[in-house]
Amino acid sequence: MMALEKFSMGVGDRFGRQGKAQLAAFKLAKESGVDIVPVWNKSHREHTIVKTTPDAVRAEADEAVRAGDWKGPYHVDADHIGLKNVDLFIASSDFFTLDVADFIDEAPETADLDAFVKKQSKYLGYLEIPGIDQEFEVSRTWLEQIGRRFLLAVKEAGKIYRHVLSAKGSDDFITEVSVDESKAPQTPVEMFFILAMVADEGIPAQTIAPKFTGRFNKGVDYAGDIKQFAKEFDEDVAVISFAVREFGLPANLKLSVHSGSDKFSIYKPIRETLQRTGAGLHLKTAGTTWLEEIIGLAEAGGDGLAIAKEVYRTAFGRFDELCAPYAPVIDIDKRALPSAETVDKWTSEQFTHALRHDLACEHYNSNVRQLLHVGYKVAAEMGARYLDALDAHEAIVARNVLENIYERHMKRVFIGE
Ligand SMILES: [Zn+2]
């Protein structure tokens, strides 16, 4: 098994141009004494929209590491894959995020369910998990319910894992199990039994991505009960360390937080838990870099600003089409969006102030930010014209990409301010 280090961060790069700028943030973190491993992740959905292939992510990562003279580990994550599309990712990836959220609530075979309940019946009664004050009452009915909800999904993860294992011909890769795109959040005690199933399937999971309480909208701050999140995160960490001992899972198993970019209000509780417990974390931040490209172009003025405005105008006009695939993970107040005509008159400063994720800035507009977040399809359609603008304004874009990852993310989550 290829082992994942304690702290790792998923960086996505929709157009494959910011690998070096992203890596520079990891180098700064290292200089400040904190090792964070870069993982370049891109999902099948993104590849389809931008019309790229998984091989391009591997090429970008290798080139960024070569050019940046990075000596540490790094990985390429086949993000949110299933049996339908995993084959495209086998050669290029060494990290596989097995997404089985779609299989939750599908009925398992009766014999499988019976076997699960029988095996876990040693936990019947009151379950104590070290690090959690409350005890959990585990009844046979409740175990059956858990089995009905999650067993088939975890069995599906087992199928994908074994498929990757045989296609690669070795276990030299990292496995994540993700259920973050499910309808309901999983409680810590549910996660305990999900991990029991993961172990039974023989999946050497090193990261697990549950769905947490609250909304993890794309590119903007967390929306929900911060105290409740903090408690849940803390308990999930306790559950993981207990599950590792109980079920013999990899000792470095840790949480993976998806849609993790820009969730500024929960970074402090996360960091406090990591510091107090010594736990590791994988934080996925895919979409935030693309917004820094638009900010950089807008900041550059001239033709850069014109492209940023054109992306806004087109995205505004195609609101429904662009938002539809992301409906569960965005919350845009359409009435609070400025018209394309208004944005056309904006200066560089007005554009960057509206878009840059600075909660202290009175001109920041989370609606503009979310619309542009899903608007990368528009830039993808511009093709060479967009990519040429990135090249022309490379330095200014790179500075924004680096600052965003290092200052607003790494410092707050892993390093401390
Ligand atoms: Zn996810």
Annotated CATH architecture of the largest domain: Alpha-Beta Barrel
Hetero groups bound? zinc ion
Could you give the order of strands across the largest sheet?
1-2-3-4-7-8-9-10
Taken in chain order, the helices and strands follow as EHEHHEEHEEHEHEHEHEHHHHHHHHH
- The proportion of residues in beta strands is 5-15%
Number of domain modules: 2
* Biggest sheet details: 8 strands, parallel, barrel
**In angstroms, what is the radius of gyration?**
22 Å
The poorly predicted ranges are: none
Tally of individual helices: 17
Please report the first level of CATH classification, the CATH class of the largest domain.
Alpha Beta
CATH topology of the largest domain: TIM Barrel
The proportion of residues forming helix, as a percent range, comes to: 40-55%
Name of the CATH homologous superfamily of the largest domain: Copper homeostasis (CutC) domain
Ends apart, CA distance between termini: 34 Å
- State the total count of DSSP E strands: 10
Q: How does the helix and strand content classify structurally?
A: alpha/beta
Mean pLDDT: 96
Label the overall shape. globular
